Amino acid sequence: MATQDGLITGQDGRVRCWWPGDDEQYVAYHDTEWGRPVHDDVRLYEKLCLEGFQSGLSWITILRKRDNFRAAFAGFDPMVVSEFGASDVDRLLQDAGIIRHRGKIEAAITNASVVLEIQDQHGSLDAFVWRFAPETGTRPRSLAEVPATTPESTALAKALKAEGARFVGPTTAYAFMQSMGMVDDHIVGCEFGRAD
To answer: Out of 19, 26, 51, 152, which one is annotated catalytic?
Structure first.
């Protein structure tokens, strides 16, 4: 596997961003999901929750547990999760298939109610978050050009927090923007970016 300025040539001969390495699940996520626009509220809520759980951890840890998260959190249906109570928190704290962090679990439940409120006030979570899409769509030319935060992610985090959301700081908000395709941070030269 050859590497060059944030890019790798995989065992399949295709050039992609360096970060999935040769892990099959990670490569599939990079190639088919990351940076692809998502407009479904359930999937957006899932991505927001998982980025919160990822805080302080590697994304591959979350990705490997994603199916367990989906089972534990009722497919990330915000209507169902918003009804979770103390017994559900206790159940989730015992679930070795997910990240057992009380604050993150409680944030995911709180954020389900926030999503429902946003849907009521703004029509959809999709409409609410996509207002923060940056005007420019330039892909980074190197790893050094991939930011951890942007003015847009800071504004999105502030807006979500104003609605009552938790575990959504500017860095988490930017990772969310990357994963749900609001920004395309596939490095120029990666075959899987939307456009050079």
So the answer is: 51
